[in-house]
Amino acid sequence: MPQVSVRNRLVEHAEAVFRRNGFSGASIQDLTQAAGVPKGSFYNHFESKQDLAAEIVTCYVRAIDFSPLTGSGPAVERLREHLIAQIERIRAYGTEFGCLLGSFANDGALVGEKVRTSVREALASWADAIGATIEEGQAAGEITTRRSATALAAFLLDLLQGATLRARISEADTFLADEVSIALDALRV
Amino acid sequence: MPQVSVRNRLVEHAEAVFRRNGFSGASIQDLTQAAGVPKGSFYNHFESKQDLAAEIVTCYVRAIDFSPLTGSGPAVERLREHLIAQIERIRAYGTEFGCLLGSFANDGALVGEKVRTSVREALASWADAIGATIEEGQAAGEITTRRSATALAAFLLDLLQGATLRARISEADTFLADEVSIALDALRV
């Protein structure tokens, strides 16, 4: 019977390996070595590298702090707090490694359909959470109604991804908070 | 003496290979095979895969149509025309392959310093061109002066990258033009 702790260790360490090596560059050996488990144990726990990657995406989204979005202050300030927290998370991990969802999205067909589906669902649920706050802001007259909450939520997420990508290549991240502010300008009534 | 036509063929076909396979996934054999040249000829023309990739980045930026930016109409409309043209270019190539600069940026340290420098320079010169149009719009009172032209230009490019990335993973691209419009809302006075 597969050991639970081996599985947990694989999940716990896989994010770092995928971020550093990319999906294609992360070998089963890299993943088992980072977790400190025997190489042969991998397939006792996962059918494939795709399987593990899809689970990592789920873990990544589960760890997003959505609580600022559901507070009681002005919607734009709640959105700002949430987005700044994402920037802090990326910075804490190392700006040079970018966002895991962005990385997998960028790997295109190489990551396989299971991971792509997982990333799509992750982005959709994230956009839903942001969209709910935008709707509250629209109802309160704080956010423009010329655009749908869905479109504005996707816009904010896309800007965050693009800015994270530039931070990754430019090896600078001081501009990120200002860029979030510019994006929020687009929500003005 | 290395044949010029072999070199040209490698450059001509490399973009497609890098887009499809990613940097890490593109082997020398993939590159020579796509170009229809002998595998052994590669190193007569390029020191490394990095060398070729850096040249492809330069070609990619040289092929950007900057002419809409330097027209005489309202600055925001010139920016829109330029950004829409980029979307059309990505769409013509296949939305699922994303933007070459974004792909390389997202490969992080894996692509090597030469390619990273090339991408940084490419993004900087692109942002400069966009920034010049924004400055004209600011001088004409059409674009907000609460933000610097440099910051607004980077914001527009980042949004384009992020939106392209979402189009890539979602396999949809009809939202791109609307998203450019939302971004341009942020430039309003």
What's this, in brief?
Two copies of one chain form a homodimer. The first copy, chain A, is mostly helical and 189 residues long.
Describe the structure.
The structure is a homodimer. The first copy, chain A, folds into two domains: about 45 residues, Arc Repressor Mutant, subunit A (Orthogonal Bundle), CATH 1.10.10; about 130 residues, Tetracycline Repressor, domain 2, CATH 1.10.357. Chain A is about 70% helix and about 0% strand. The first copy, chain A, has nine helices and no strands. In chain A, helix 5 packs antiparallel against helix 7, helix 5 packs antiparallel against helix 9 and helix 8 packs antiparallel against helix 9. Chain A starts with a helix and ends with a helix.
Number of domains of chain A: 2
Query: Gap between N and C termini of chain A, in Å?
Result: 59 Å
Rg of chain A, alpha carbons: 18 Å
- The counted number of beta strands of chain A is 0
CATH homology-level superfamily of the largest domain in chain A: Tetracycline Repressor, domain 2
| Number of helical regions of chain A | 9
Q: According to CATH, what is the class of the largest domain in chain A?
A: Mainly Alpha
Oligomer: homodimer
What is the level-2 CATH architecture name of the largest domain in chain A?
Orthogonal Bundle
Mean pLDDT of chain A comes to 92
Largest sheet of chain A: none
